[in-house]
Design brief:
Blueprint: E1 21-31, E2 34-46, E3 53-61, E4 95-104, E5 118-126, E6 130-139, E7 142-152, E8 159-169, E9 172-181, E10 187-197
Antiparallel strand pairs: 1-2, 1-10, 2-3, 3-4, 4-5, 5-6, 6-7, 7-8, 8-9, 9-10
């Protein structure tokens, strides 16, 4: 299916248009002191016609049932297969993280940016007590970001830096997040593979 620009989208954010929509999928999180765990994720990118995109996401840990037979309770996957996003289930495992914020494409092009790229900013708030500003470039279905500023409250998570990669691969939204936090150097923290949900 060909991609169509969302109706009413501000021209300033055309380079990010492929993000707009609702996404659901799976991923894995792991970090020193955090046991590697599978998760499900819901992500939504919306617009109201302004020169930015609004962003929200929730990650829930996958909890294996105590009874292994319950894993087969749904029967054969049939046509659903492994390529289908997990179904939305209210209370589908404990929330691991949520974040919300805004994507922006600043009007000034920094020197050295390739002709097929645009500058991009991501402003995020996390209820664990920190906010982040990421800067980078978007082009050819790929977004590379590094943290420009991270601030946290006195009781907030001790996050110092981050790096993110988002990419559109065969119609799926793939992402990876590296993190420097809790005295650890920048390293892999989480990654996911999401599929667009039809409205």
């Amino acid at each position: 299916m060909p991609f169509v620009l969302p109706e009413g989208l501000a021209p300033e954010v055309y380079p990010l248009a492929w993000l707009v929509g609702r996404w659901r999928g799976e991923g894995v999180v792991g970090y020193p002191g955090v046991e590697e765990s599978a998760f499900t994720q819901e992500l939504e990118v919306t617009h109201d016609g302004g020169p930015y995109l609004a962003y929200t996401t929730t990650i829930r840990l996958v909890v294996a049932p105590d009874d292994a037979a319950a894993l087969d309770a749904g029967g054969d996957a049939g046509d659903e297969g492994l390529d289908s996003p997990p179904p939305a289930v209210e209370g589908d495992g404990p929330v691991w993280s949520t974040e919300s914020g805004y994507w922006r494409v600043p009007p000034e092009r920094p020197e050295g940016l390739a002709d097929d790229q645009h500058p991009v900013e991501l402003l995020l708030a996390d209820p664990s007590g920190h906010v982040s500003v990421f800067v980078g470039a978007v082009g050819n279905g790929r977004i590379d970001l590094v943290s420009d500023l991270v601030a946290h409250t006195a009781t907030g998570a001790a996050v110092n830096a981050g790096k993110r990669l988002y990419g559109m691969v065969n119609g799926e939204l793939m992402w990876a997040h590296d993190l420097a936090a809790f005295g650890q150097p920048l390293q892999s923290y989480a990654s996911g593979r999401l599929q667009r949900l039809e409205d």
